Amino acid sequence: MKNKLSASLIIIIVLIFIASVGAFYSVDQTKQAIVLEFGKPVGGIKNAGIHIKIPFIQQVLYFDKRLLVYDSPPTEIITMDKKNLIIDNYAKWRIANPLLFYKSVRNEAGAQARLDDIVYAQLRVEMGKHTLSDIVSKYRDKIMVTVKKKCAEMGKIYGIEVVDVRIKRADLPEQNEKHVFERMKAERSREAKRYRSEGQEEAIKIRAQANQEKTIILAEAKKKSEIIKGNGDAEATRIYAQAYKKDKEFYKFARSLETYKNSLKKNSTFVISTDSDFFRYLFKNKK
């Protein structure tokens, strides 16, 4: 009888120990948890710390509290100008409401699948409103802000908080790359021709202005030289006139010598009478 009582007591003590141990669970700082009772969520969200549950009846599901990354495979979209574009994007998200998250998508795999639909749909809608050149060069950031906002609104339904949506790269389909390259090359060639044409036009204007300034400068210089020359001639005439007044014969003699100097060059031939007035100072004393 004593053995039976001892055995029963031991069994009871073991069961109490197991129950007490299974009644406690802890939640890490990086996690959040919900309690399931026969597969249905009960109670609220459990944050970091030690909590109590009913052993064998209730079980605990843990969800990551940290920022998670959704990285989708590249997908093809069509822009407003009917160009195909391969988009490789990613999103940052976290589980904001574990109860709603569990009821709607169950786990992270389900959430990734749902995000794939949401993000791709919003990218397709927003990029379909813009041309290829606008997406690549102008409105990319603006588009991503709009996509992120809409994805965040839709994610709330599933207990998901979408923190950010970004494009890693945007490529053209292989069959379109050559066509786009040739078009870009042609556009750059047109730009280069326009720049050269504008440069030539500007060069012509500069040359014309330089020639005009040159003509004006030469005309002013010629005008000044003529004035100086005229003043010199007037001064020379004045000096000659004064000399003529002082000694008429010497003046005539000096002028004749100047005339000989200018007229009788090397190898010069004159057919003229020696009695001519021109040679009177050369032959004056010869009888």
Summarize, please:
The chain is of the alpha+beta class and 287 residues long. It has helices at residues 2-22, 98-104, 108-127, 132-137, 140-155, 174-246, 248-263; strands at 24-27, 31-37, 40-46, 49-52, 58-64, 68-71, 75-78, 84-95, 160-171.
Set out the fold topology.
Elements: H1 2-22, E1 24-27, E2 31-37, E3 40-46, E4 49-52, E5 58-64, E6 68-71, E7 75-78, E8 84-95, H2 98-104, H3 108-127, H4 132-137, H5 140-155, E9 160-171, H6 174-246, H7 248-263
The major sheet is characterized as: 4 strands, antiparallel
What is the global morphology? rod-shaped
Question: CATH homologous superfamily of the largest domain, by name?
Answer: Band 7 domain
CATH top level label of the largest domain: Alpha Beta
What percent of residues are in strands?
A: 15-25%
The string of secondary-structure elements, in order, is HEEEEEEEEHHHHEHH
Helical stretch count? 7
CATH topology of the largest domain: Tetrahydropterin Synthase, Chain A
Report Rg.
54 Å
CATH architecture identity of the largest domain: 2-Layer Sandwich
Number of extended strands: 9
What is the domain tally? 3
Structural class, by secondary structure, is alpha+beta
